[in-house]
Structure formats: C-alpha cells, structure tokens
Design goal:
Structural class: mainly beta
Number of helices: 1
Strand content: over 45%
Radius of gyration: 13 Å
Largest sheet: 7 strands, mixed
Length: 112
C-alpha cells in the first residue's frame, strides 16, 4: 500500500476536519500530491493539489478559501485542512499522487 488516508468522519456544518495521507517515500519525494473527492452518484473531482516542494497549490473553486492543502516532506505526509464545512462537502476523499496513485479513500460526512 502506497497511500493511506485518515481523519475522515462526521462534522457539523461550519465545522472543521483535517485529513492526512501517509505516502511511501518512493512516491512522496518525487511527485505532486493532491486530494480528490467523490460523492454518491457523482464523478470523482479534484479538490486540491500541491507541488513536490509545496511551492504551488491549486484549489477547486468550490473549496477555495475554506480548504488548505499542505505537505510535510520530512514525514512523507500530505494534509487537507477543511474548514467552514458544508453538507455538499460530503464525499469519499481520496489521496492522489502524480500520475495515478490512489489511496483507499476516507469518508467525510457533513450533517447536523
């Protein structure tokens, strides 16, 4: 297993969660990383990405200003800090490494 997510769960609208992704060093040290999500009945969509050294990030418009992606190169970890959560953020969140490595996914549910 090369990508392992954790940190999903249930949050109230307006609340926060932090997702973590542990990556094998062979993947982490050379690749851009990111997070995707897939809600029931929807296609998988890009949430955020971060370059190898963390110098550049990208966010989908639906999460910009609410989510923050970061990486700890010393620990081979990628994080997604999610704030001001909305019910429409409910989905399975997947860690991704360029070009096509995927984690198993972690469920995020936003509900009161």
């Amino acid at each position: 297993v090369q990508l392992v997510e954790s940190g999903g769960g249930l949050a109230q609208p307006g609340g926060s969660l932090r997702l973590s992704c542990a990556a094998s060093r062979s993947i982490f040290s050379r690749n851009s990383m990111g997070w995707y999500r897939q809600a029931p009945g929807n296609e998988r969509e890009l949430v955020a990405t971060i370059t190898t050294r963390g110098g550049s990030t990208y966010y989908a418009g639906s999460v910009k200003g609410r989510f923050t992606i970061s990486r700890d190169n010393a620990k081979n970890m990628v994080y997604l800090q999610m704030s001001s959560l909305k019910p429409e953020d409910t989905a399975v969140y997947y860690c991704w490494a360029w070009p096509s490595a995927w984690g198993q996914g972690t469920q995020v549910t936003v509900s009161s």
